TrEMBL record:
Residues 417-479 form the TGS domain. The keyword Metal-binding does not apply. Pathway: Purine metabolism. GO terms for biological process: guanosine tetraphosphate metabolic process. CDD domains: HDc (cd00077), NT_Rel-Spo_like (cd05399). InterPro entries: Beta-grasp_dom_sf, HD/PDEase_dom, HD_domain, NT_sf, RelA_SpoT, TGS, TGS-like. This is Bifunctional (P)ppGpp synthetase/guanosine-3',5'-bis(Diphosphate) 3'-pyrophosphohydrolase. Belongs to the RelA/SpoT family. Keywords: Hydrolase. One of its GO terms (molecular function) is hydrolase activity. It holds the Pfam family RelA_SpoT.
Length: 596
């Protein structure tokens, strides 16, 4: 069996082209694999669409195909295939995702405005403003006019269009997936460039939308073109592992028995890892051979509480591996993925991974934002969709403050970064990039709080604003207006500090700090500012001990005892964290109490 035949198109599309495959070879290969017929080229598309949406009218799909075929007639892809094969394949991917008729029509027409004489106005007249918006959202800017900024401006335009209709992003992902499947006919430099950009932006975007059924294939095809030898090594491992299926069948049978005894109605199936996932864990763990644990999925037919009953049944059958349990039901991921993850010592004392989720959770895990189109009667889909798109609204907020398209694209890459953490602030969970600081959090809570951020308490202790936050930290943000006690009351807020740009991680924080300094001509922080803020920091630290100061006299005495030439020098040292404010306050309290 060809390697790609075993791990090819997740949604049933054509096999990905291998690097270096000649156009003539590809054309002959397509004659064997392309699923349409001359008499009805959209038959498979209609069939896939009506399998999920039985009441759909195929007439509009046929009309859209006819226009697309006429407009693209005479155009060919680099593989030598007629160009119409591409929009038809993109529409097929959307159909297999379960998208609605409007999305499929837009997918068929998505390149007409960009590559043919068909205008956006004509398209709107033929198919309505909804389809026109989707097509316009995925239409690229002309490189001849925009130059190097064309790519970044195109992505910016797509994100803005997705703010009105998220189906723009789904069409774009389907478009890129088919292009990645056929990337083998391009030069080595083109393959690497396109695969790298796919890995940096579109794969994380697919993950953020929760569409794992697309992400798995994108991951694998990216691996094929960036690390072809590693791709083949992992594929050989998957193909040749002896006794793998028999072992998983035994695990599944034992799990089913345990669930029946616990009266949990569930479907249990093997859940093999895709190639990129195996490769990633192999590299991350520095394993000499592919690291691939057996894995099963338990999908319960019942409420979320049945997931915990299923967990009890599994742990009652096999000993759990310490430290390997994660509850993404109680604390969903940022793309709303929900499931229980555990690892157990299964038969033959081998470690087995187990995923446990409800049917609704399973649908959401596979199809993400597309689930509401594939399963339109699943109740709370709209509220889940609103939560899932919070990140998109945040991107749109700071997009308006970014004039430079390259900076916007870099900020988007950061925002879509896979590594993220959740912290607790103001009684709610906040998602931040890994390595984020209290300043990032302050700006996430509001621009004014970010601009006036003075100090932070992490898990009950004052900490430098440059401190990296960890998963689950409880954080309190103090602003300059919080530190009003006597001698500090007349200190007006002065805005952010330039040195924050050296450690903030989130695009929101970077944008707002840069915008503040663009609007103000004041230089970076002065010694006077450091004195003022050092004094305010001590005031905040004193408040944690329910203490305060009526004058500077105790501070003057302490600065002398600590060997500073004057009070201002000590306050600058506090601001620069040469001496920690907690230590200053401890000695200050000892000094005052002892003198009394």
């Amino acid at each position: 069996m060809d390697v790609d035949a075993g791990h090819g198109a997740a949604l049933g599309g054509a096999l990905p082209t291998r690097p270096g495959e000649l156009p003539l070879t590809r054309r002959l290969r397509s004659l064997l694999t392309w699923p349409t017929t001359d008499s009805d080229p959209v038959a498979q598309l209609v069939r896939a669409h009506r399998t999920i949406h039985s009441g759909a009218d195929p007439a509009v799909l046929r009309r859209a195909y006819t226009i697309a075929e006429n407009m693209h007639r005479g155009q060919f892809r680099k593989s030598g295939e007629p160009y119409i094969t591409h929009p038809l394949a993109v529409a097929q991917i959307c159909a297999e995702l379960g998208m609605d008729t409007t999305t499929l029509v837009a997918a068929l027409l998505h390149d007409t405005v960009e590559d043919t004489r068909y205008t956006l106005q004509a398209l709107a007249e033929d198919f309505g403003p909804e389809v026109a918006h989707l097509v316009d959202g995925v239409t690229k800017f002309d490189k001849a006019f925009y130059g190097k900024a064309a790519e970044a401006e195109t992505i910016r335009k797509m994100i803005i269009a997705a703010g009105k209709d998220v189906r723009v992003l789904i069409i774009k992902l389907a478009d890129r997936l088919h292009n990645m499947r056929t990337l083998g006919v391009r030069s080595a430099a083109s393959r690497e460039r396109i695969a790298r950009k796919t890995q940096e932006v579109l794969v994380p975007l697919c993950d953020r939308l929760g569409i794992q059924t697309l992400k798995r294939e994108l991951d694998d095809v990216v691996l094929l073109h960036l690390e072809p030898e590693e791709h083949d090594r992992i594929a050989r491992h998957v193909r040749d592992r002896p006794g793998w299926e028999a072992y998983l069948d035994a695990v599944v049978a034992r799990a089913k028995t345990a669930l029946r005894r616990s009266r949990v109605d569930a479907e249990v199936t093997p859940r093999p890892r895709h190639l990129y996932s195996i490769w990633k864990d192999t590299v991350a763990g520095d394993h000499p051979s592919p690291f691939d644990l057996p894995r099963i999925a338990i999908v319960v037919d019942g409420p979320p509480t049945d997931c915990y009953a299923a967990l009890g049944a599994v742990h009652g059958t096999w000993r759990p591996v310490p430290g390997r349990f994660k509850d993404f039901i109680a604390s969903p991921k940022n793309n709303l993925y929900r499931s229980l993850h555990t690892s157990v010592r299964g038969p033959e004392d081998r470690t087995v991974e187990v995923l446990i989720r409800t049917t609704e959770m399973h649908r959401a895990a596979e199809y993400g934002i597309a689930a509401e189109f594939r399963f339109p009667r699943t109740g709370s889909g709209s509220s889940a969709r609103n939560e899932q798109l919070d990140w998109l609204r945040r991107v749109l907020d700071w997009e308006q403050d970014t004039a430079d398209p390259a900076q916007f694209l870099e900020s988007l890459r950061c925002d879509l970064a896979e590594a993220q953490i959740q912290v607790v602030a103001d009684g709610r969970q906040v998602v931040l990039p890994a390595g984020a600081t209290p300043v990032d959090l302050a700006y996430e809570l509001g621009t004014e709080r970010g601009d006036r951020c003075l100090a932070a308490r992490i898990n009950g202790r004052l900490a430098p604003l440059s401190s990296e936050l960890d998963e689950g930290d409880v954080v309190e943000i103090f602003t300059e207006t919080d530190a009003t006690s006597g001698f500090e009351a007349d200190a007006a807020p002065r805005g952010p500090r330039r040195e924050w740009l050296g450690f903030v991680k989130s695009p929101q924080a970077q944008m707002q700090i840069n915008r503040w300094f663009a609007d103000h001509t004041e230089p970076g922080i002065s010694i006077i500012d450091k004195v003022r803020l050092g004094r305010a920091t001590i005031g905040l630290a004193l408040r944690t001990h329910h203490r305060g100061l009526a004058s500077d006299l105790p501070l003057l005495r302490l600065s002398e005892e600590l060997g500073y030439p004057d009070l201002e020098t000590m306050l600058v040292a506090v601001f620069d964290r040469v001496i920690e404010p907690d230590e200053v306050v401890r000695q200050l309290i000892d000094l005052v109490d002892h003198r009394q």
